[in-house]
Amino acid sequence: MGAVTLILGIIILLLILGVVPVVLGILVTPWIHRENADSVTFNYIVGIMIMLCLMQLFSVPMTLAKVHFSKLVFWYNVVLAVLVVCALCLRHKALKKSILGAVERIRSAGKIWIFAIAAIYIPIVILNFYTPFIYGDDKTYLTMVNDMISSDTLYLVDTITGEMLTWVSAKYALSSYWTFLAYLAKMTGIHPLILCKTILCYFIIPMYYAVQMLLVSWLFRNDKRKMAVYLLFVNLVSVFGGFSNYTITYRLLTWIWQSKAFLALIVMPFLFYFANLIFEKKTKVPEYILLAVTIVAACSTTLTGAGLAVAMVAALALLYAIKRKRFGILIGTGIACSPALFLLVVYLKYDIIVSAVNRFLF
């Protein structure tokens, strides 16, 4: 890969994972009347959830129908483009206000931003010099992503033999994170190995700290001193906590590009934060919709995410329903969780459903 191609790919990746999420988020967040909901950080993470949700909605039916990967990329781009244009046309004032607010907060914070950036990015640079080989996962998932691009199919190539398959495992057919990574590699022209193990960490690790920033702002009610202490503690734990592959801190600086890492580090913490944020006061319909979008985003990473998301949100809803004596929360939460529950039912009856789809389409 030439240097010019790589630089161009990184610029495209900056647009897809840096700019587009903020614009997508601003399309939704004006309806979320909560503290910090107008911030760039909140808009950005919401935009990421929307992108993952959209990929799940495209990938699952297209995988079952054995549609070409290039068609998925085309239609996904069309929908993204339409949403971005709508956001720029309808929400340009809110977008400008959000960006100006972020710039003002950076100015008022002073030199502490230098230390914050250093604390986040120095471990990333170190990670680039030590990208460990993790038994079979590297071979399986990176090969799978590469095969999608080279064969123009969705999970229909055996990662060991390279032979074409006629049956897609439910583990891959019903989640779309690897499709999303293949999409990023296709759009940028960067090889999946380089993308996942060298470049994505510069996006996902700051994303993790952005989610932690939102969580701590809710937890300590924007008390800057307590927030600073908490984030410093999180950073220290992240750097020195990689003693076991069962800790999220290990995954943060080793397996950051993998689906379970993204679920544990980004999606589940944001879902926990957002569920608490909306349940503590009267919850409105747009907030339940965004809750559903985030739950679908959890489903996109792994089927484990579907079960964990439903269990966590249901438990929080029950606690708040009892605390506030507002049991209507349970109805809205049940509706928001229904896509994940439906996916779990499909998983349980996967063989029957796939056989029926094959008879109908093929």
Characteristic terms for this protein:
globular; 0% strand; 362 residues; mainly alpha; 17 helices; 78% helix
Structure description:
By secondary structure, the protein is mainly α. The chain is 78% helix and 0% strand. It has 17 helices and no strands. The protein has helices at 3-28, 40-64, 69-90, 92-109, 112-129, 135-151, 170-173, 177-188, 192-199, 201-219, 224-240, 248-252, 259-279, 285-301, 303-324, 328-348, 350-361. The longest helix is centred in the first third of the chain and has 26 residues, at 3-28. It is globular, with a radius of gyration of 20 Å.
Class from helix and strand fractions: mainly alpha
Sheet with the most strands? none
Backbone shape: globular
- pLDDT below 50 for ≥5 consecutive residues: which ranges? none
The CA-CA distance between the termini, in Å, is 39 Å
Order of helices and strands: HHHHHHHHHHHHHHHHH
The count of strands amounts to: 0
Strand percent estimate: under 5%
Tell me the radius of gyration.
20 Å
Mean pLDDT: 89
Helix content: over 70%
Total helical segments: 17
